[in-house]
Amino acid sequence: MARTNAIGLTKADYKGAPTTLCQGCGHNSILSQIIASLFEMNVRPEDVVKFSGIGCSSKAPTYMLSRSFGFNGLHGRMPALATGALVADRTIKGIGMSGDGDTASIGMGHFKHVIRRNVPFVYIVANNGVYGLTKGQFSATADKGLVLKRQGENPYMPIDICMEALASNASFVARTFAGDPKQVKALLKAAFHHKGLAVIDIISPCVTFNNRPDSRYSYEWAKDHEAALHQIDFVPPEEEIWLGEGLEPGEARPIRLHDGSTIVLKQVDEDYDPTDRFGAIKAIEESYAQNVLLTGLLYIDPEAPNIYDILDLPDEPLNRLPEARLRPPAEALEALNAGLFAA
Amino acid sequence: MARTNAIGLTKADYKGAPTTLCQGCGHNSILSQIIASLFEMNVRPEDVVKFSGIGCSSKAPTYMLSRSFGFNGLHGRMPALATGALVADRTIKGIGMSGDGDTASIGMGHFKHVIRRNVPFVYIVANNGVYGLTKGQFSATADKGLVLKRQGENPYMPIDICMEALASNASFVARTFAGDPKQVKALLKAAFHHKGLAVIDIISPCVTFNNRPDSRYSYEWAKDHEAALHQIDFVPPEEEIWLGEGLEPGEARPIRLHDGSTIVLKQVDEDYDPTDRFGAIKAIEESYAQNVLLTGLLYIDPEAPNIYDILDLPDEPLNRLPEARLRPPAEALEALNAGLFAA
Amino acid sequence: MTSETAPHPSPAPTRPAVVNDFSITVGTINGTGSQTSNLALLRALFRMGIPVSGKNLFPSNIQGMPTWYTIRVDKDGFIARRDRHEIVVAMNPATVDEDLDKVMPGGVFLYADHIKPRHMRDDVVTYTMPARKLARESGAPPKLRDYVANMVYVGVLAHLLGIDLDAIHAALRYHFHGKEKATALNFGVVQKAAEWAAANLQKRDPYRVEPMDATRGMILSDGNSALAWGALFGGLQFLSWYPITPASSVAETINEYIPKLRKDPVTGKNTVASIQAEDELAAINMAIGAGWAGLRAMTSTSGPGISLMTEAVGLAYYAEVPVVLVDVQRVGPSTGLPTRTQQGDITFVYFLSHGDTEHIMLFPGNLNEAFEFGWRSLDIAERLQAPVFLMMDLDLGMNHWMGKPFEYPAQPMDRGKVLWEEDLKKWAEEGRRWCRYEDVDGDGVPYRTVMGNRYPGAAYFTRGTGHDECARYSEDPEVWVRVNQRIKKKYREGRKYLPKPVLHTMEGARLGIIAYGSTEPAIAEARHILQTEHDMPSDYLRVRAVPFHDEVGDFIAQHERVVVVEANRDGQLAQLLRITYPEFATRIESHSRSDGLPLTAEWVVSGIR
Amino acid sequence: MTSETAPHPSPAPTRPAVVNDFSITVGTINGTGSQTSNLALLRALFRMGIPVSGKNLFPSNIQGMPTWYTIRVDKDGFIARRDRHEIVVAMNPATVDEDLDKVMPGGVFLYADHIKPRHMRDDVVTYTMPARKLARESGAPPKLRDYVANMVYVGVLAHLLGIDLDAIHAALRYHFHGKEKATALNFGVVQKAAEWAAANLQKRDPYRVEPMDATRGMILSDGNSALAWGALFGGLQFLSWYPITPASSVAETINEYIPKLRKDPVTGKNTVASIQAEDELAAINMAIGAGWAGLRAMTSTSGPGISLMTEAVGLAYYAEVPVVLVDVQRVGPSTGLPTRTQQGDITFVYFLSHGDTEHIMLFPGNLNEAFEFGWRSLDIAERLQAPVFLMMDLDLGMNHWMGKPFEYPAQPMDRGKVLWEEDLKKWAEEGRRWCRYEDVDGDGVPYRTVMGNRYPGAAYFTRGTGHDECARYSEDPEVWVRVNQRIKKKYREGRKYLPKPVLHTMEGARLGIIAYGSTEPAIAEARHILQTEHDMPSDYLRVRAVPFHDEVGDFIAQHERVVVVEANRDGQLAQLLRITYPEFATRIESHSRSDGLPLTAEWVVSGIR
Ligand SMILES: Cc1ncc(C[n+]2csc(CCOP(=O)(O)OP(=O)(O)O)c2C)c(N)n1
Ligand SMILES: Cc1ncc(C[n+]2csc(CCOP(=O)(O)OP(=O)(O)O)c2C)c(N)n1
Ligand code: SF4
Ligand code: SF4
Ligand SMILES: [Mg+2]
Ligand SMILES: [Mg+2]
Known about the structure:
The complex is a heterotetramer, with 2 copies of chain A (343 residues) and 2 copies of chain C (609 residues).
Chain A: H1 26-41, E1 48-52, H2 56-59, E2 69-72, H3 78-86, E3 93-99, H4 100-104, H5 108-117, E4 121-127, E5 130-131, E6 137-138, E7 147-148, E8 152-153, H6 161-167, E9 172-177, H7 181-193, E10 198-203, H8 219-225, E11 226-228, E12 231-235, E13 252-256, E14 262-266, H9 277-289, E15 293-300, H10 307-311, H11 323-326, H12 330-339, E16 341-342
Parallel strand pairs in A: 1-2, 1-3, 3-4, 4-10, 9-10, 11-15
Antiparallel strand pairs in A: 5-6, 7-8, 9-15, 12-14, 13-14
Chain C: E1 18-19, E2 21-29, H1 34-47, E3 52-57, E4 66-74, E5 85-90, H2 96-102, E6 103-112, E7 125-129, H3 131-137, H4 145-162, H5 165-175, H6 180-200, E8 207-208, E9 219-222, H7 223-233, E10 238-241, H8 248-261, E11 273-276, H9 280-292, E12 297-301, H10 303-319, E13 323-331, E14 337-341, H11 346-350, E15 360-362, H12 367-384, E16 387-393, H13 394-398, E17 400-403, H14 421-429, E18 461-463, H15 477-493, E19 502-504, E20 511-516, H16 520-534, E21 538-543, E22 545-546, H17 550-558, E23 561-566, H18 572-580, E24 588-592, H19 601-606
Parallel strand pairs in C: 1-8, 2-5, 5-6, 6-7, 10-11, 10-12, 12-13, 13-16, 15-16, 20-21, 20-23, 23-24
Antiparallel strand pairs in C: 2-4, 3-4, 9-17, 13-14, 15-22, 19-21
Helix pairs in contact in C: 1-4, 1-5, 3-4, 4-6, 5-6, 7-8, 7-12, 9-10
The complex binds thiamine diphosphate (TPP) (2 copies), iron/sulfur cluster (2 copies) and magnesium ion (2 copies).
Residues 55, 99-101, 128, 130-132, 139 of chain B line the site of one magnesium ion.
């Protein structure tokens, strides 16, 4: 019998339609980790909603969580779509799945502005440096100098998703690699419990169009060059934090999230403070100089006000308020009329 | 008689239609400095082209350089418009004028991507933290906590134009203040001679909607808090660099541009290297901590390849090539036909 | 016309009085607060019981450019714009000469004495006034002098025309939200100016006002505010917007009134989420997200914004998401004339987005319909699970109109076919299967669930790609045909939920006029002229929605000649009518014009008689 | 149908031979290289002199999903899609059952022996083939086995139908750009498979091919490539694009051929600037900038991209900037069916952008027109200083069509009314004043200068806001009317530069058919059927441009009944015809369908007979 979690569900309860992505596509690994993390966190699929734009990455949500609502919107507009929807029910948690084309080209403006609004959802960029679904054109995150079939050589400097997120004051910024499932899962859990927008840039190789070993987006390069900032553990609110066998307190850094859960970073670089935005920028800069793929939780501000704080909405789902709480009474209209300039 | 410059023009030759901006609008000061810089650099207005988006700032180009071609395009799309046009004639230099709304909201994506393409023109963001032309709504650069008439309090963190430009690898990034005409002019000259895209974020107070002394975009605040990184001199290619009376070589930093002209930075902070991108980011970060308006040439990469290099176009204006150089000969079509699968 | 010799040549004062039947046009400089003066005049006349309208002709600019305000006073209640200007007030040196040219022969020209017209006309009555002097003497701080100088013409006109000073006082107090100091300062100038005029001007023109009883029980407001309030009373839950003239005030009014009207009675929190988006692409996608998730969602913009929303509207159409798009039309194509009015987005919006579409448009024709459609559009969108376009225009949206007090929505909110947990439970008990896009009732409208519904099987996956009745991805040709034909049916059948056209008939009419939206006053006046001056009685059908009700076809069938009058270049509604009623295509005549100004009755008549 | 008993039940082989008159449909898995096999078949048949067409029915997906390829072989040259499938090849276990169902009674079902159909039919001839075994034996590296397995059906069909192996060899060599190794590997499998078939299969079906002489001098290509080449021969100077199916190959082909065709003979540099934009908003604004600056500019996209270009198209319309927009139509609304074909953007594009607009559309109907309009559209855009829409569709753009070799442009490039320094000098000498938007020639087309012209007074300021004849900012109502009426005139008068409709007549026809674009083959075949089977001769007008030439109105006037056939839901061209010709609105019948597939002659006939 399949293993069940604390709310009695099996992993199958978190699955979606069979994937139609290519065999070996990084996006498929991401899907597995989303499923695994929700299963392990005992989240009801009904309490999750999925959003995406357009691309192979954006098709992915079809292949998970068929018991969750989902909206596969327009190319580049996922952040806006998710913002509108998430306002409707604060008790639901969002997962937005996008690609590097979807986010770093056509969706760049919305990406920046959803960050400013700190809308609480997990914003995954399944980043393969290429346009998969349209068959292999350069995306804005492609390495300078990369040569792709039919496209020639990319002459432009790449956009760095994490750098962009940090520049615009994102409250949660992480980078990971689809080939490092453990880290992906841990970061997903942390992101899921973050109070605001959690940006996760996941290097997710496109085996069909951009997996040559000289590409930063290939499995081979990423595996060989991954440099993890730390090991990440997520501790749900109800559990006690356990820093690990024989670990000195100084060797682990716990970060408390708004809902009482905790992220524990182990084997941390002593100097690295994930609540220091500028330090995160610096680390990214240096990772390029060192030619490594820096992964881990780069930055977090666990308490930054989110859009619910800003809009001052009721705690109940807005979409369930009855007419009596939405339509002002007749007296209000009388007062309004009385306040107008009348003859 | 009016003073003429080396090519025999008076300042009037650089003027446009009478301004219809508000009296005291920072954008008017920027216009004056553009006119002054071109006059002093002996640039023929016919060798300049103006672009803009939509906004008070974007209307501004009408009020200068009536002898130059100009295109007042769509809201947020100036970078794309300018890119297309500038490809047509490499012998023309572009000035793009935009606003904070135009660039940091609707135009954010194009801003990022014109930076990647390093299209050689002066990209001015006349930044007032507000939507002037639509009467005073918050823009994305507005201070958090700012209160504006009819709009309430701004709950969002501001976008920093220079930070965004640096994050995306811009090759020239400067910040200045419309109330500091000397610096504006010097930076404009440097920008004009830069090989690639030159981003200048000019704090340009909107006297009608955002000039309260507690706003970072007011004349008063900016004047009181301006902290210039250096004094800037621009030396055209034909002139000799003169480091100034009694100045030790170490006290001035010359930066040679691709066309042989030189930017000389004086009274420099010893530690500040404007060719160090990361240092620039750091300086901006620190300026917020110190609550100052940091101005000057933040970053320059004088040799980054521009779009002309990338597209490998002829040096002559593309738009003047005759038919014989545009339409392949009949033999080429025969060869093409011969290469097709025929019965 | 005879003329005096001194001090200004002007016609003899012996003409019969013209009472409550003229237009006043004031030429000022924008950014000098003339709106306060003009509204004071408008409101005072209205308070006196006289039908009025006020139209602001302003530049796309913030400060220093010419701007004009026209008040039409008409005892018969005809308040359309006119090309005739009986009384012109010149406060702007830059336009004084053209302002003078505007005055109709025999009319009045009143100008501030710091202004020097280059020529004079001997066929108009001219008065000057010491606007700056009186402003200086008012004790107003120097910064406010330009503002209060504009109060001078209010006072002078009050004297010349006989406008009730108490009514002006009331108008000012209203304007300044009851603030005594501002009211007193301004009213003081009005009084002083009136006194000055009484002492120094000799009335030589025939125009005056007299109190009437034609506005009792009415209010004055602008269409954008009315719409905003309507939406708030409609239970609006989500607004996304991006600033643009002439639509901004829809959102700004909503934002202003959320604290007043939409604090949750239970928690004291806001029950409307309002977000200023980064652009119109974001605005519409947010609104679609919200509408999809079960919120009553709206976005407000003008033509350029609609253009940017094009792709997303196709998504809403095909994924069947309720959302209201307010289009406060200004003059296009392109940036066009951002501060002028047009009915120019009709065919554009109807066919909006690639692929086969046909959209629902509502055309409010007055203040009360702006309010009503403000709430009704939310009902329609949710009922039909479709984007609904509320086609306003600058004239109705930003100008001041008379109206009745707003009426409380006549019916409870129609949330359409939404299934919550208990509904699905009942369906299950009844053995009914729910599929998102199934035409259960035969009206083309499927049942929907919304995000947050936790019932097993309630969740579905929404997409703009091909999908079958159960919302499953599909590239099957037959499925595509079926689903899209069902949607077509939904629009055909759904017409019954849209506001019906309004019919006005005249005895013996053979001529039919079709029009819509803000041209209402011009049509009303034109019909009067046609009947009285040209012996052409007419029937008039005011269309209030597209797709058309059968009544529209019937109306065309019943009239030998049907003239479609509209404020655009190409006769856009006429085009849609020809498509819809090919059998009558030839009898549909188009009379259209777009110059940025509201239509005049004279122009309407010119194309019909 | 009688049936044998063993090994597979199948009809008697005694039926008369069916020669060069059937369809072959192959069901495979995408990403397995079946395109190589299918093209080899298509090209070989074509090389044998037999009229063919090949249509790819592929999913919106990269790898692993079902995909079908249909080759129609028709001795009479009718090459439209058909719903009948005489021969079906099944290579995909996931679709084998539906593939079997597709075979028409009496037809052939050929499947790979690793596939197990769930049922069998006794009314079709069935063959199996050891595809995997032969692939294994081919010596191909394991990675390529799936690819070469697809070569097996090529060889088997070659044997069964009598396809010339040399022709297949030539087709493969062409496909692999002459690379011997790849050609040999694949051809080896074809040969082996043919040999296997010869040894193991007993032909029990009537289908075969015979060489003909119906394709001599012709070529095979796809419309997107043709268009791309046409544009390059048209002197294209600027291309901006954003990837989207089914348009990407327009830009990719242009990029591929810039080095081959457009190296400057003088400097060796590129004479085309091609930029992959960050989105379609950027793409169109770049192209407008380039067109404005005097470059021949184009952007290529599909429906969703056009939707995003909406605002900018209004700017190009009103600021009068030449630019070509290629719309390779796919199925909308919304993301719709990205890999299926439709003529669904007609009314949408015609009315594109807010305000009054009416756009120019060109409809290439075949490969050679795709090439010709590729260059001609650039001429038209510059001649009329306007956006020009080149309305392709997926069927014409991405499928393989027969055509004549491309013809060199028949006339020099028409750069329109552009004034350079020397021109302005001449004007000045002649005392003529130049103003950007002045209608000098009475045809509505003004003269323009372009960026870089240094002549005094050559520069002007372009804007999407109101402007007068001299390009000065203007909010004047009369100016607005004048300029926009002049633009309207430009479109009316400019029709003479657009490709005229093509007329095909039949003796005694009273029926008129109007159609456009890629439906050409279906119409041709349908007319044949109507004439021969239903005694309904027809005249056929193939429209190649909107706005319509007078010939279109004349054609309608001359026919009692006019059926407009198109591949969309709403009969979009018929709607435009009704608007343009209200006097004939009732005789214009619409016969339209949109299911994502190219129209069939049978369906066309069904709506007419
Ligand atoms: C408006 C619009 N333009 C273009 C497309 C075509 N398109 C589909 S997916 C895609 C790129 C997706 O790239 P990315 O986001 O990196 O996803 P990936 O497929 O690589 O996972 C594009 C351009 C579209 N669907 N809509
Ligand atoms: C597509 C579109 N949306 C909205 C507008 C309305 N609009 C005109 S100017 C402007 C804001 C300009 O702000 P900014 O760029 O900061 O310029 P400023 O006026 O402050 O100088 C807006 C939103 C427009 N013209 N087009
Ligand atoms: S094409 Fe690339 S991104 Fe798309 S499914 Fe295949 S491997 Fe993944
Ligand atoms: S409104 Fe503000 S930005 Fe616009 S012209 Fe006036 S001061 Fe300048
Ligand atoms: Mg990608
Ligand atoms: Mg601004």
